[in-house]
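Raw record, unedited: DUF177 domain-containing protein
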Amino acid sequence: MPSETLRLADLAARDVTERVLEPDAAGRAALAAELGIEGIRKFRFAVTLTPRGKADWSLDADLGATVVQACVVTLDPVTTRIDERISRRFLADWSEPEGGTEIEMPDDETAEPLPATLDLYEVALEALALALPPYPRADGVEMDEAVFAEPGTEPLRDEDLKPFAGLKDLKDRLGGGGDEEK
């Protein structure tokens, strides 16, 4: 996988640092393999790192990518365009939330602990992974109903699980199934 690692202590403490990541075909193929998708046709990650105070940094970036994933129904390739705005804050005085199995989400979900080094491709890859459609479908493809049952039993269908399905059956059995004029 490509790498663009910055050591934050080496960056100018008063200047904005800008980078643009546009990997070649081999780099895009490596990123696609890392994500477990069929391919990445285009990829651009424009990053601005801005110092905040004595040790903190903010990262603002624009992620643009054209990805190819397999359709969850037909396995045909599905192309998706992704355009995301990324914001992160790296804080020197970060403290991990305390608690047992349940931890309350912090007020600022963009805040992270200040790393010694920052790999911009890792930030881009995480953002792209979060932006990918979880269940890509080819145009016009619908999910069919899957029906499973033990031999000798009637299968339970989606229609049977609707809240008023039982009332409709009762109404039909009592002879009130048709539309009647009042």
